[in-house]
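[Q] Does anyone have a clean structure-token version of this?
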Amino acid sequence: MIEESFEAKGRRQRLVSGLREKGIADEAVLEAINRVPRHLFMDPAFLNHAYQDKAFPISAGQTISQPYTVAVQTSLLKVGKRDKVLEIGTGSGYQAAVLIEMGVKVYTIERQRELFQKSQTLLVSLGYRAHFFLGDGYEGKPQYGPYDGIIITAATSHVPQKLLEQLKPGGRLVAPVGDSGSQVMTLYTRTTENDYEKTTHGHFAFVPMLPGISNGNAK
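[A] Here you go.
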């Protein structure tokens, strides 16, 4: 990992304190967020805003999620060390870094070639080891499953059955479900081979999840 300034570390600690005040209680998640240098996942133009609890634009018309959103999704997964998690939508790589800091084995899919290359290069340079795939998130990666957790980091009108089937019994899938504008954070827990329990956890806003692979700048 690279050397960091005391200023960046201090801003991150204040961010974590703010997340705790907003109700994030999972200390493992908070500790992971406190260790990830979020400013390195953003355009330098937003450097002074890196530790505000806000989403910001990144390449290819996408965004880096608000830290509170990352904390909520990660907390809902309830994963531990050596658990396997499939991430749908690598994006900036920030969410993957948080999971890796928690000791999770991350398998991450990105459909945008530009983001796939940028996030992989950045994560590797920072010492974060994950399994990276350029592909269609709707298909998942069944050959590496089943997974303890699956996290979808884009808005989807429905959760693909193919992804639910890639969960282990007791596994959890977290996704923002709904149309453009606002989605409901939804948790699916696989209770038996054919049954899933569904709970909802508030409203959020994400960019849309689309099928296929894109080589351009629009998703």
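[Q] Thanks! Anything notable?
[A] The first helix runs from residue 6 to 21.
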